[in-house]
Structures are given as C-alpha cells and as structure tokens.
Amino acid sequence: GQNIDQPTEMTATEGAIVQINCTYQTSGFNGLFWYQQHAGEAPTFLSYNVLDGLEEKGRFSSFLSRSKGYSYLLLKELQMKDSASYLCAVMDSNYQLIWGAGTKLIIKP
Amino acid sequence: GAVVSQHPSWVICKSGTSVKIECRSLDFQATTMFWYRQFPKQSLMLMATSNEGSKATYEQGVEKDKFLINHASLTLSTLTVTSAHPEDSSFYICSARKTREPYEQYFGPGTRLTVT
After folding, report:
1. Tens of pLDDT along B86-109?
2. What is the widest separation between alpha-carbon atoms in chain A?
3. Chain centroid to CA B68: how far?
4. Does A87 touch chain B (CB under 8 A)?
5. In A, residues 57-86, which contact B (CB 8 Å cutoff)?
C-alpha cells in the first residue's frame, strides 16, 4: 500500500529552527510537495523536490532522499505566523498526490 | 501566478436541498481538478478527480450520485451536493493541477458548507 508518515504535532519557539520529517512508501515517485495550511484555510504550496538534495527558499528549505524515502521541511527564524499544519504529499506513478495527515506546528513566544 | 477561486466561500442550506460549488483556475488551464473534503482537525480527504470533458473518478466510499461533478471547461469544475444532510457539513476544497511538470496543485480558498 501507499503510506506517508509525518509527526502529528510539534512545538517550537519563536526565532528558533524546526525540522519536520516525512517518510513515504508509494507506488512510483514523481516528486514530493510540502504545503502549509492555516486553520480554516486551504493549503498553500511551499516547495517541490524531485531530485535528491536541498532546495532553499527564503526561511524555508526542503530536503529529499529518494533512496531512503525521506524528506524534511526546515523552517528557520520561526515567526508566530508560521503556526500552521504542514502537509507532505508525494506524487505517485499516476501523477496522483498521496497526502500525509499533516504536522501541526505550534510556535511559542 | 496560479490562482484558483472557489464560490461560494461559505453557504448554509436546509437539509434536503442541493448546493453547487464552483472552482475556477483564473490564470492557467487545468485539465485535471480535484475535490477534497476536510472535517475539523482532520487531514484532507480526496473525494474525486475531475477531468475536463470526461466523467469524474470517485474515491472509494464517495457516492457519485450524491456528489455530482462537472468539469465542462479547462478552467471550471463544479461540485453539487445533492439532498444535503447535516453530516455533509464540512470544508470543501478544490484544487487545480497545472498541465506541465511538476504538475503541482493549487488550491482554492475552500467552501464551508453547513447543513441545518
């Protein structure tokens, strides 16, 4: 079967760094996506990885290791507005997105 | 940019009535759109995949006669909740997939449906 695992909840302090991990087992791989979802809102696209390595975009970076079926989203200089759920999704061989359950990130002052 | 709009943003209807939700990709063409449902504090649940000009593909457990999907053009898909019941109250979100790699999905703002 297809499976995406990510922690349910994480807590971090404003100004700090947090890493949200995602492991996956899917039928085929056409890329991994990270989305941010604030409570009561729709998800917004954050990043896309299809090759191994680190993609940096401002305060957010995303890493992929295809051989390990592993990715992480790194958030630096945390701000209160970063409090949200972070969704990991893998595009399978049929170009369908398989979604993780999301990681709720709580930022404390 | 890649903007997807959804209308209405919220709707309250009486039990037994039908509600139509529109999803539009405003600045790109989308041969494929997706409809999701999300209950409070739960993850996204894919309901169906909508392909322009053909029938939608429904996920297991989703009643196709209750959730009617029409994808009549490359920029518009509609979801009609027929004979709505209180248990259909939820947050409905559509997304549109770009036709070029990496085929990322862009989400509409969602429609909050409350059935009384």
Report:
1. 999 999 999 998 877 777 889 999
2. 43
3. 10
4. yes
5. none
